[in-house]
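To: structure subgroup
Subject: Chain for Friday's discussion

All,

I'm putting the inputs and outputs inline so they're searchable in the archive.
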Amino acid sequence: MIYDITQPLFECVVFPGDPVPEKKAVLRIENGDICNLTAISLCAHNGTHVDAPYHFYSDGKGIDKVSLEKFIGRAYVVTHNGLVSADDAERILKDAAKADAESARKILLKGKATVTLEAAKVFAAAGLDLIGNESQTVGPEDAPKAVHLVLLKEEVVLLEGIRLAHVPDGVYLLNCAPLNLTDTDGAPCRATLMTL
């Protein structure tokens, strides 16, 4: 089974202050044009998207320089609501490794989870490829910088704005490859989970 865990782009939740994605009909067959053609305008962090180190580090990798192996592979989905403490992070990593050693490198938090600075340090030290959550930011919405700095410094990809309500906890094959946007701080992606 394949789960689509991506928000529809033009109906997505937008982080406060970010531009809203828009689409414009450039050509339409019904108007006598040869084909339908749509122009889009969006922020690299609209809807379901991934963050690259360049998002918070001027000398960090752009999304096009991050290895695709970070975005594709076994992942562990776990339900957590509220703040993720350092102890929570340790437990999540331990449970993921028990379920499947490879999936412990890509953690997806289901529910209203907020990664604390202490948890970010645990995840970064563990050498994760990726951490994902349902919020539009991994850290606290009112102060996301510190969490981003810790994780992105270690090149942990942040997959934000996913939708996991219909996905049971467990191990899956994740694909959240981003658009290949040269030298950008992030990119939208079509994130999916496939049962093994």
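Points worth raising on Friday:
Helices lie at 86-99, 117-125, 145-153.
The longest helix spans residues 86-99.

D.
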